[in-house]
């Protein structure tokens, strides 16, 4: 079955059957929200790269920098009150540390912020296959493994 993703980052249920006109999670018009969605007044979300139990990863274009491709990782906190505030503090600290690393094998951090109970990390988009797309054929010799990583 084909799925149409709602790209509204605030949508609680972004997966919709292709015959739906309106998102079952946020009520947005899927002919608009599934094509592009402007977020945080700076990013144009163009697709969903992945989704897990604690968040979603989007491909986006940075409207402030010639529409350069970016990755937005959305983490959803499952807590409230003081625990949520502590989580925001820890997220900010971790994002700052990640930004300080500046390593060629770590995507560059461009932005980080929180809204409500969600935390967002904006990083460099790197073209290529994901590990899930990479074909695994038999066992690899250690030398082959080291060449990949």
From TrEMBL:
Keywords: ATP-binding, Kinase, Nucleotide-binding, Serine/threonine-protein kinase, Transferase. PROSITE patterns: PROTEIN_KINASE_ATP, PROTEIN_KINASE_DOM. ATP binds at residue 74. It catalyses: L-threonyl-[protein] + ATP = O-phospho-L-threonyl-[protein] + ADP + H(+); L-seryl-[protein] + ATP = O-phospho-L-seryl-[protein] + ADP + H(+). Residues 43-149 form the Protein kinase domain. The keyword Nucleotide-binding applies. The keyword Nucleotide-binding applies. Its EC number is 2.7.11.1. GO terms for molecular function: ATP binding; protein serine/threonine kinase activity. InterPro entries: Kinase-like_dom_sf (IPR011009), Prot_kinase_dom (IPR000719), Protein_kinase_ATP_BS (IPR017441). NCBIfam families: 4Cys_prefix_kin. This is non-specific serine/threonine protein kinase. It comes from Microcystis aeruginosa PCC 9717. The lineage of its organism: Bacteria, Bacillati, Cyanobacteriota, Cyanophyceae, Oscillatoriophycideae.
